[in-house]
Amino acid sequence: MTDEIVVQAPRSATWQVHLDRSMWVGGVRGLMLQALHPLAMLGVWQNSTFQDDPFGRLRRTADFVGRVTFGSPAEADEIGRRVRGIHKALRITDPSTGRTHRVDDPELLLWVHCAEVSSYLEVARRGGLGLNERQADRYLREQRRSAAYVGLHPEDVPGSCAEMDAYFKQARPALRVTEEAAATVRFLLWPRLPYELRRLSPGKPAYFPFGALCYYTLPEWARRMYGVLPEVPAATVTAALKAFRLGMNTLPEPVHDRAFMPSTRAMLAGARARLGAAGYDVSKGLKGLTDPRRWPAAPAA
What we know:
This protein is mostly helical.
């Protein structure tokens, strides 16, 4: 990944999706979808503090996605090495068979990747981000680079909407709602706040509509498997998602970015500085770069 690719990145489909604030819904939806893979769910259950700190898990995922999207080549390579090193050291014990599995098993990594990036893309498009099918395919092709950072071979990763649909069709027979998966979805609908956020407890009931929105954006087959909430009309879900996206996208970037870890905010500040030096108008922050009028003129062919 060269510096040229970095400064051209605002022109990519990836930036259009990952700068959209619907990513918060997509991230939680992705966790709910990932939980349907029994072995992947065990990997989270046995090797993380997810039950105690779900927001930490979401913020760490946001940090990884942010660094491989907006970070410098060195930052992206560094977090890729870190994630691969962590995964390489972790194991999963299947209590039903007694077998031990590697967390970095390519099948598991592929499931986690596909559940995550398909959630980002589908939620953003349904929420109103105007990506046509060709641009959606381009996003998935670009995400093969993200998959390579966690240790997958890009050619093994779906690179179009048709390939992603075929992947899920092939994967579905192995999915099921385990005890851990059911507990995870219930938890994501009504999470326990970490200690540093306990002061927000009085406002916790306001979280449930957000968690429910994430749940209702799942594919119909996934909602049927879970059966946690009664079905509502698809048009109602789409309208709620569009309203959430519209509201979040109006937040000033400094306010929105407070949700990220300090190290993530520092990385984003570095990205703004690099892009400003490359001729992009960053007066409205990175979010402003979804407007092509803030890009420098493309070099002549």
